[in-house]
Amino acid sequence: MGYACTVLADSVSPAGARITTFEVTFPRLVLAEFNTHRVFSRNSASSRAIPVATQLRRVLEAPYVPAEFGTNQPGMQAGPNLAGERHERARQEWLAARDAAVGHVIGLIAEPGTAPAGASTAELLELVEQLRARIAAKDIPDAWLNVHKQLANRLLEPFMWHTLIVTSTEWENFFHLRAHPDAQPEIQEIAERMRAAYEASTPREVAEGAWHLPLVGEYGGDPAADAALSGDELLKVAVGRCARVSYLTHGGTRDPSADITLHDRLLESAHLSPFEHPARPMTEAELAESAWSGNFRGWHPYRKDIPHEWDALGAEPLVTSG
């Protein structure tokens, strides 16, 4: 893994409002800075969902390692970068911390003779042997504890690459603040890539009543299979595919029926953030009342069509049987 940026859908309404959905990958350590931008609708890869052996393999084989190690000084910006031997020493310290974190995770995850979901015992044993050779001073226990990945994976986050789907109508402030020399280099890198992709992309005209649908048809879907689906089905498929970023699986085989099932399950459980990415142009009547719907300007997110979407606990069930 590494820095990556893809436009998943780019649309413009009859009134000239533009909405863009990206899939981006960047170092997990600047996710909090990305999340301060409240006009964004986001779905992220989840440390709770991805099998721990998968994360272990990633941080062993392709960890995030800073390209620069700025020196300490007052203020939010680092001083001059380390160079030569001092840079290499800092890099080795970072990797040693990674090795120690991986060793502790292996110490947490499984009982003898078992393996966590999604991993074979042989794969875990191979990882253990890699670590024994790599960290001679670290005594990796033979008795493991079967701690869930929702905690065990957290120890790996400073060394992880993070994938996120984000949709917004408002990008200029983000580009101004983050694609800027004063920003932390990790978020500056991905913001510059996003700005370049945004400027190079030509939004597709979407008529009133039609939808902005990430990961459907020409936008990363299966155009032939998706063409056979109804409008309502395509809407559900877009939700399911945006939700799957939590599991990092939507680079695999497309299965519209599975995406629709996932949409229905998320609706029933009121996990509604993936419902924010599909959106339709606001009508003239809607725009006369307000230019905004949720956190979008000129576009109405699918989530806002769900009754009581803001307070599922205090409302009637979102899905009724019969």
Give the tags.
single chain, 322 residues, alpha+beta, 5-stranded mixed beta sheet, two-stranded antiparallel sheet, 11 helices, 9 strands, 13% strand, globular
Note down, in words, how this protein is organized:
37% of the residues lie in helices and 13% in strands. With 322 residues, it is an alpha+beta fold. It has 2 domains: 4-47 and 161-314, no CATH class; 52-159, no CATH class. A 5-stranded mixed β-sheet has the order 3-4-2-1-5, with helices on one face. It has a two-stranded antiparallel sheet with strand order 6-9. Strand 7 (292-293) and strand 8 form a beta hairpin. Helix 2 (52-61) packs antiparallel against helix 3, helix 3 packs antiparallel against helix 4 (121-134) and helix 9 (231-243) crosses helix 10 (256-269). The longest helix is centred in the first third of the chain and has 26 residues, at 84-109. The protein is globular. InterPro entries: Thymidylate_synthase_ThyX (IPR003669), Thymidylate_synthase_ThyX_sf (IPR036098). Keywords: FAD, Flavoprotein, Methyltransferase, Nucleotide biosynthesis, Transferase. This is FAD-dependent thymidylate synthase.
